[in-house]
Sequence to fold (466 residues):
Amino acid sequence: MNRFTHGFGLRIDRTFFLVLALAFLASTILGCGSGGFNIIPLGAKLQNADNAFESAEATEVRDEDPEKMEKNRQKQQELYDKAMALYLEVIERDTKGKYAQRSHYQIAKIYKRRYDWDKATEHYQAIVALDPTGYYANEAKAGTANIRKNREIIKAKRAEYQNYKAIYDSEPTDETFNIAAEALYEVARAYENLENYTEAIRNYERLVEEFPEHAKAPQAQFQIGNIYFYTLYDYIGGWPAFVAVSEKFPDSYEASQAGTLLKVTADILTDIKLSMDEIEKFRNKKAVEYRKTGRKITPADMWVMGYSDQVVQNFQQIASNWEKLRNYPRAINAHKTLARDLSHKKFAVADALYRTAALYQQNGDYERAIEGYDALFENAPESTWRNECVYQQAVCYRSIREFGAAYEGFKAYMSITKGDTPYLREAEQIVRQYELDQDQDGYMFYQEQEAGTSDQDPNAHPGMGS
Fold:
């Protein structure tokens, strides 16, 4: 048996984590296809592309069987290819619109996953060419600057590390030791900033191996675990990385942090597994078989009579636990699965729709959040979350610089809100600001903002080019 042990005396079967991840993904992702390729509306095509991209991001690649790992990797790349093909179709049809901008942005992400920085930069530049002042242009400029800066850091610091490591090996001094170690740490950080996590981990590991006495060594070992747990969502890879902190640097601050983190993570993963087992226990096996034969089965029929509420609680607990682990993709997946498979539980569905959108917003994916809030308005218009969603959707529109939609959203929130709510005063203040027309040219502040013109100059206004 392959097991890991840390300072709390907890023994964890490595296979447990693999089974946990794969079982959860298998039980939730199946049936969530992104739809056909031939849907005409651009918005639907873009959503299909986003779904394929999300599926690629959520694909569990890690497996102890090398053949299975290679198949998982191929599946992930196929999903990225599918997403890219759809994004390119959107760009071809929407050469100047916001759909094209998002598509370029997402393609840049895919190229970054493949470490093709030049291609990513090309798509960032295409965004800026379409709309130099928009939300995606700002993100693209930041992305381009990040790529340039960190590639320069890697080049400079790698050379510094190699030079001073050679000097240290021939004539060891504290100064050359420190310079070489610090340079290597900066190389690893730069790779991490570029989202090249394979190279980041490799360079952190090199630092630990070559400079175990340096103050940055325990930090580097701890950061390896962080990347696995909180970026790659790879608990099999992260577990031994955190265990190694305590083994290699037992007196460090990071060792105490790693020990606590492992215990908490083990408890959470165990709780997720128990909740998953309960869900399967309450699944109506006959209904599952009937559905396989093509018979129409309602969501209520899919669960043992009288246990739907318990299943709802299990899904909610699973989502909450993934969120505690900062594994937002699986938390979102759990909420989406609840909304799909227990659609007869209206209050629970409304809550799941709200939390899905809120997690997208929390993760900075504002357009997906906007779509999520729309899903709640459409499917649960009487939800107690409605007012909150109206406000938060307006916040998302403001974040992506769609000020007209934000203005209407904040006004709508004011009209449906009774009493002194947490957001009412802020909404009123924003609306007042948006309705200003300081240069008296007939265009309100939010219209000037959206057009990228000045509200201080009557000769610069949205209609000047018409």
